[in-house]
Specification:
Layout: H1 4-18, E1 21-24, H2 29-42, E2 46-52, H3 58-71, E3 75-79, H4 95-111, E4 118-120, H5 134-140, H6 146-150, H7 154-163, H8 189-204, E5 210-215, E6 218-223, H9 228-231, H10 234-246, E7 251-254
Helix pairs in contact: 1-2, 4-5
Length: 269
């Protein structure tokens, strides 16, 4: 097995061979490390493209803008309305494929006049262990996945990010807000807003990793098991329950299995 620095060298060589790329940039752990490495290797031939939509909290876009400004990399921001994508709101099991196919298609149109050869996204080696219908769109559209090609895991990317002084090295994992809904439940702007506000409360209360999963009128909260004692403190439990009821949830529950990625895939038909 290649060690972490061999993989980093492999990543750098892969990027060098591509010649120029636009990184689909979300300000997350993976895409930040990819953008920094691409900028180190390719200079001005590496740019960032961020799609702004209701699927991601506004603070994530602010972080993306600030990082690109500090790095000195060209940053293109495009607006997108996921509800204009046919089939998205119905939230079928392949919703991620439907959405990524449209959004990456939009990115391809954006960068074709930028003198850039490829678009790259931040999937890593760990992502192959989960149900990821969006990867089908990535392959169909010829989007590159350099971190995956290099065989880098999430833990390795965090370690290399820390060594590089990146602010995201210990940033909690994030996924688009549409991933909070059980498959088959229709998604609306109002529901997305409720999830965003509910999760913002958890962040403000100091929980580092969280999800508010939606099953109809039930909010299923996922946090790390070692944080259970904190969330059931009377002052926190009352504040969370009261606020989520105001957001329209009839029941507010704590998932005793704790936070884990892709938990909605357990409800996939």
């Amino acid at each position: 097995m290649a060690d972490i620095y061999e993989k980093k060298h492999r990543l750098e060589n892969y990027l060098r061979e591509l010649g120029s790329i636009a990184v689909a940039y979300s300000a997350g752990v993976d895409s930040t490390f990819l953008l920094k490495t691409a900028h180190d290797v390719l200079g001005e031939k590496a740019i960032a493209v961020t799609v702004r939509s209701c699927l991601v909290p506004e603070r994530e876009f602010a972080e993306a803008e600030n990082f690109c400004k500090d790095l000195g990399v060209k940053h293109i921001i495009a607006e997108a309305d996921p509800f204009s994508i046919d089939g998205f709101a119905k939230n079928p099991p392949d919703r991620c494929y439907i959405c990524k196919k449209a959004l990456f298609g939009q990115m391809l149109e954006i960068v074709k006049n930028q003198g850039i050869s490829f678009i790259a996204e931040g999937s890593n080696a760990d992502d192959m262990n989960d149900y990821r219908p969006g990867m089908k769109a990535v392959k169909e559209l010829g989007i590159k996945s350099p971190l995956l090609e290099a065989g880098l895991s999430k833990a390795e990317i965090r370690k290399l990010s820390e060594e590089a002084g990146l602010p995201t090295w210990n940033k909690p994992s994030f996924a688009c807000l549409a991933s909070r809904f059980v498959y088959g439940e229709e998604i609306s702007g109002e529901k997305l807003s409720a999830v965003e506000k509910a999760e913002e409360l958890l962040r403000e209360l100091g929980f580092p990793q969280y999800r508010v999963r939606v099953h109809g009128k039930i909010a299923r909260i996922e946090i790390s098991p070692h944080e259970f004692g904190k969330i059931i403190l009377p002052e926190n439990a009352e504040k969370i329950s009261s606020y989520l009821h105001k957001l329209g949830f009839l029941y507010v529950s704590l998932d005793l299995d704790g936070y884990r990625t892709g938990s909605m895939n357990n409800f996939r038909n």
